[in-house]
Each structure stands twice: as C-alpha cells, then as structure tokens.
Amino acid sequence: MSDLRAKDCLCVRYTRVDAFQRYRDIAGDGTDSAKVFAVFSEDGVFMGLVEERQAALFPGRIFADLLIRRQPAPLPPDADLETILQRLGEERVDSLPVIDEDGRFIGAVSMLSVFTTLGMREQALREEREKLITQLQCELENRQVAASVFDATSEGIMVTDTNNHILLVNRAFTRTTGFSEQEAIGKTPELLKSGRHGHEFYQAMRRALEEKGAWEGEIWNRRKSGDIYPEWLHINVIPDESGKVRYYAGVFSDITQHQELRAKLLHLAYYDVLTDLPNRQLFMDRLEQAIAHARRSGSEFSLLFIDLDRFKDINDTLGHRFGDQILVHAAKRLKNVVRESDTVARLGGDEFTVLLPDTSRPEDIAETAEKILAALSAPLALEGKTLFIAASIGVSRYPGDGADGESLLMNADAAMYRAKESGRGVFHFYSAAMNSQLNRRLEISNALHHALAADQLWLAWQPQVSLPDGRIIGAEVLARWEDPGGTPIPPSVFIPIAEETGLIGAIGEWAIRSLCRHGMELTCHACSNFRLAVNFSPLQVKPSMHQAILDILAESSFDPRRLEVELTETALSTGRDGMLKFLMTLGEAGVEVSVDDFGTGCSNLANLKLLPVHKLKIDQSFVCDLATDPNDRQIAAAVISMAHALGLKVIAEGVETAEQAAILTELGCDMAQGYYFSRPVPFDTLKQLLNDNGVLPSDTPTGRAARLA
To answer: Which of 401, 433, 400 is nearest to 417 (CA)?
Structure first.
C-alpha cells in the first residue's frame, strides 16, 4: 500500500458551500449528510474546512464564522499514506484539505476515507489475486490437456530447436518410428533418414520453411528396425516474441495403409470388380500402348472382340447370380487359353476383348480364336446344373483394320456381329464391307424409332383356313414397315434390330392395340370362334407385359377369347423367368396360346401339359416337302396325332400347293395358312373376304390367289 497517495483517498462525502451560507439552509435539502464542508469565498477562493458536527452545533451561523482561526496546512496531492496519518494525528482533526501546486482545492482526506480506500484497494487486490489464481489453474489444466493430447494423438510429433536437435517427441513418434524418447532426444531428424531423397529434396524443404514458415509433403523415413515407410509430414516454424525462429514442430502420420488403400482404389478404377480382368479404361490404355509400340517397331497385332451367345436368356431364366458365375468362369477360361503377354479384358456385360501382340499370320489368330471358342463351349457345372455356353468372336488387325484404338474396337465389334449372323459360336475377320452393313443397321434402328413414334408401321393379315370346309376362321397379324421412299423393309431385318435395341416391347404393344382396334370391326363378319393371332418375341415376355395386354383388351372392349398369342417352341422350352405367370394369367382371361414352329426346337411334351397351350403350329420346313419326303409326312402325322391326343388343335403354316393342303386334310390337320390360300393382305382386303361369306373355294386356287391380290 506504500504507493497510496492523498489524491487516491479523497473523501466522497464533502459538500462545497459559500462562506455566507448557513447549515440550516442546506441541512434539509434531502441529500446525504456531509461529513465535512469545504468553504469558499465569493471569489471562489478556498477558505477552509468545517466539520459537520461543528456546523450542526451552530446551524444559524454562516460558515465563515465557523472556520477555526488557524486552519491546518493543506496536503499536497502526492502526500503518502504515512504523511496523511501523521498530519491527521498532529492536527487533531478529522479531515485535511488537499490543494494542488496551483492552490486549487481538489478534495479532502479523512481517516474514514483513508481506511475506505485501503479497504477497497484490499478488495481489488483480493479479486485480482483470485482471478490470477483462476487463470493459473486454467492454464495449468490447459497445459495438462495439451500434454495429454500431445501424448495421445495418433500423429507423431517431434519438436526441434534452431540447431535441429530433437527436444520433444510423443508416444505416436515412438510407436511409429520404434525409437524411444531417450533415444531420440538430443539427436537430429537424420536419425530417421531413409536415403530415398536427394540433397535437392531437403534444400527445397529448408527453402519453404524460410520463405513460408511451413512445409508439407510426402517423405520416406526409416524405422529403428530398418524398414522404410511413407509418411505425410507437416513442419511449422514456431517464432519467439521478436519473430525469430525458436522451434520447429513436425507432425507426421504413417500413410502405409493409405498407400495400400490407394493401390486398392487404383485396382478398382482399372479392373473389373466381378472377374478381376482389366476393365475398358485399362484395356483402351493398353491398346494405345500396343499401337504406339507397333508403330515404332513396324509390327502388327490383333484384337479379338468376344460376346457370349444368348447370355441375356441365361440371366433372365436363371437369374443374375448364375449369370455372374458364368462370367467369372468365362474370364478364367479366357486367361487359361491365351499367352502371358496377351491382355484379356471385360468391357462390360458379356463382352470380352483379347489383345494379341505381335500377331500377323491369320492362321495363328484363327488358332487362338478356335481355342477360345472350344474353351468357352465346354460344359459348365453350377449348383447342380450343367450349362453350355458359346460365344461369337470378331477379329480386327492393326494396321490394316484401323490406325487408332476406337476404330480397331469398332471394327472388331462389327466382325463379331457378322459372326453372330453366321450362326453364332464362330469367329469372323473384319472386312471393309461390314462398315456399310453396320451403318445400315444403325440407320434402320434410328428410322425404326421414328417410324414407331410417327405410327408408320402397319399390320398385314394372313387368313387362317379350316381345312375341312375352306372357311376363314382366323388370321395372323404381321408387322409391316416401309422406309420413307416406299421400299419395304422385311420383318427378318427390322425385328432382330428391334429386339437388340429394346423396341420390341413397344412394337408388341402397338400390334396388340392395332389388332384390337381393327378386330372390333370384324365382330359382325366372322363366326363366333374367329381368332386373331399375334407373334410374341421371348424378349417381350416380362412380368408386367401380361397386365399391359389385359389393360389394352379392357380399354378396347375386345373379347380376350378371340386373341391368340404365338410363341416359338424354343421360347417356351427356355423356362424364361415370368413365362409361366405370363401364359397362365392370359389363359385365365381367355387368351389362347399357340406353339409356333413346332418341331424345330427342343420339344418338351411336359411343357405342353403344364402350360395353357391350345394349338400347335407345324413349321413350314416340314410342310414344303410333304408330297416328296416320307419323313416329313410321318413327322406331320405324328405331330397331328399327338396334339389331338392332348386335346390340342393343329395348324400348318407355309402351305403353298393344293397337294400339300390335300395331304394335311387327309392327315387330320385342323387348319392351315400360306400362299396357297392367301398372302398377308391389308385389312380392307380381309374384310372383303369375310363379306363374301369367308369361304375360299378349293377348286380354283390360282383364281383365288389372283382375287386376293
């Protein structure tokens, strides 16, 4: 408290009064009672102090009269505490005035004001001390937390001085490097040097620390065991108050696992997840490398494009799990057949490619392709099932079939499609003529999209005749299409393209709608069992398709019992997913099912018993030689007899002569269709035939054909 001065202890309870004022005039003004009165003359000159008790004894006297004759000497503002107390004692007064060097009154001090000030100062010191103690406690706690975090963090920490000597390390440092705290303290970071980085690397690090105050990057260090490992290191400069370097703090993490993860991510980016073969991206990269090598060396190489035949049917009938297993086995078989230097890749779906470097002789390429086809076609046992898969292969060669990767891949793909058109299960070399065919297919595909949207397709109607009496009892509807120039495009051309592009479903729904709309006009012309038949591709058989057909029938009010759906024997025998539900639902609604091309597929009589089949259709391949081939005649007789035994009707297609019609009638065939009776005709022609009683005279086939045309 030795620094306490008079100006610090001024009394707060004093009142300034004029010399001629009286106590009684100010005693009842409602203000707090003053302990002392400072008396001033009319000119504002300080005259002295009057104690309150003295003024209260003589309330009627003016303050000038109450001043004692000898006023105590005033105190200067800087009088210390000892002087104040000594003067109060010597003067035997309660208060002393405080006057500055210019003679101006600045206040009064008293024993009470001194002790009050001392008490306030003590309270302030106590509060400051308590605050300091609290701050120290917080700082201590923060230091303890920082120390705990420092020691518990998963990143290694190393602090060095300006001479690069290690001052401090944490547990993660010890755990990562293998060096204990005692082994590291006092050493330099060269303790961890791996030797992988040159002088320039460390120079760049030092330059960054000097210029930016920090460095960050990947560095390879060595553990105590001698193992070299990668770490991600942050180094920061810690300056002192003047801004000079005081410490260097390095924080690092072992990224060995990150490197492994990065390798896995790279593998996922460039390899197929299912088969572990190179994917399209990696294959195209290797293809470009092969082109660059062949261009430099003047060598040649070949590209094989492999597509599994009817793989979609396997997926649809057995499920994608089976399909995935087949792809895995196909990939293994491909790798086992080719050389170590060859690249086998999966582009996606059931498409594979093989890159054969340094192959110029066609016979060598053909030998490899034959090996691949043989390996893929070997029986495959999966979950108690024996499966047979096949593939079609297209071959393109560098540089003859393309100077860049995209051209080579596109041309190999075109050759693969030619192989499929040639009967599947074969390989085909690319030729320039394939491009025009491929472009034609693309043109047809685009035009078919437009034609369907613009309602440019139309239905042709081929009458189906009852053989015993020649009466028209039904008709098969067939999709027809002409290009903008009026040239007919055969169904054999555009239907496969529609199946490949996914348009077959839309075409099927269009055909059903058109059939129902026109069929309603025939109600008054035909007998009660007159039916309209429509072909269905296996690709149209989807879980929701049966409901779409029933909705169309309901919207058009067409009687379902007059609709007949034709499916090939092969389609029925595949057991396609949803086929049974599709047929059963339609059968329950009254729609009949006809087995088309019967005898050409894998006949399965059990299917005929289980499925709601009403009619068998003898394929025209057995009809065309009925008059000359006894075997065909026996097959037709057997089919008719078997069908009747099962309660099924039989219709023969492709009947072109009176002799064929007569033989079929003799064998007991129920119905027939073909050019002998009528070509497929426009709807108006069919209506005219039905208006003429719907009977085709059997004795004048030539005239009948002319009439129908």
So the answer is: 433
What pLDDT, on a 0 to 100 scale, did the predictor assign at position 671? Answer: 93
Question: Smallest Cα–Cα separation from 686: which of 536, 562, 574, 532?
Answer: 532
Closest CA relative to residue 365, chosen from 335, 407, 395, 336:
395
Residues 323 and 211 in one domain: no
| Same domain membership, residue 286 and residue 256 | no
Three-state SS sequence of 373-417: HHHHHCCEEECCEEECCCEEEEEEEECCCCCCHHHHHHHHHHHHH
How far, rounded to the nearest angstrom, does the alpha carbon of residue 622 sit from its chain's CA centroid?
Answer: 54
Report the pLDDT value the prediction gives residue 388, as an integer from 0 to 100. Answer: 81
> Among 414, 431, 448, where does a domain finish?
431
Give 3-state DSSP helix, strand, coil % of the chain, rounded to 5.
45, 25, 30
Q: In terms of domains, do 604 and 694 share one?
A: yes
Give the C-alpha separation, 673 to 661, whole Å. Answer: 9
Rounded to whole angstroms, the Cα distance separating 199 from 379 reads: 63
Structure-block tokens of residue 344:
């086998």
CA 450 from centroid of its chain's CA atoms? 32
**For residue 267, is it within any domain?**
no
Same domain (yes/no): 333, 393: yes
- Pairing mode of beta strands 301-308, 391-398: antiparallel
pLDDT tens profile 321-351: 888 898 999 999 999 999 888 999 999 889 9
Q: What is the DSSP letter of 601?
A: S
pTM: 0.48
- Both tokens assigned to 390: 């096949």
> Do residues 224 and 336 share a domain?
no
Question: Does residue 557 fall inside a structural domain?
Answer: yes
Taking only the tens place, the pLDDT of each residue in 562-575 is: 999 888 766 676 55
What is the chain's alpha carbon radius of gyration, rounded to the nearest angstrom? 54
For residue 406, how many other CB atoms are within 10 A of its CB?
A: 10
**Is 131 part of any domain?**
no
Half-sphere exposure of 213 (CA within 13 A, CB side): 8
Residue 558: both structure tokens together: 């067409």
Q: How many other C-beta atoms lie within 10 A of the C-beta of residue 615?
A: 22
- Among 134, 127, 185, 125, residue whose Cα is nearest residue 158: 185
The string over 503-535, giving b where at least 16 C-beta atoms fall within 10 Å of a residue's C-beta and e elsewhere, is bbbbbbbbbbbbbbebbeebeebbeeebbbbbb
Of 99, 119, 139, the one marking the end of a domain is 119
Q: Taking the alpha carbons of 505, 506, 508, 509 in that order, is the dihedral positive or negative?
A: positive
Q: Which structural domain, as residue segments, surrounds residue 178?
A: 153-260
DSSP 401-464: T-SSHHHHHHHHHHHHHHHHHTTSS-EEE--THHHHHHHHHHHHHHHHHHHHHTT--EEEEEEE
Question: Could you tell me which of 531, 563, 529 has the C-alpha nearest to residue 546?
Answer: 563
The angle formed by the CA atoms of residues 50, 54 and 60, to the nearest 5 degrees, is 95
Cα within 13 Å of Cα(202), Cβ side: 11
Q: Which two tokens stand for residue 632?
A: 């065909």
Helix 320-337 to helix 311-318 angle, to the nearest 10 degrees?
140
In this prediction, the residues of the chain whose per-residue pLDDT falls under 50 are: 602, 697-709
Where are any strands of DSSP class E within 294-350?
301-308, 343-348
Q: Answer yes or no: do 249 and 301 share one domain.
A: no
Query: What tokens appear for 432 in the block?
Result: 């320039």
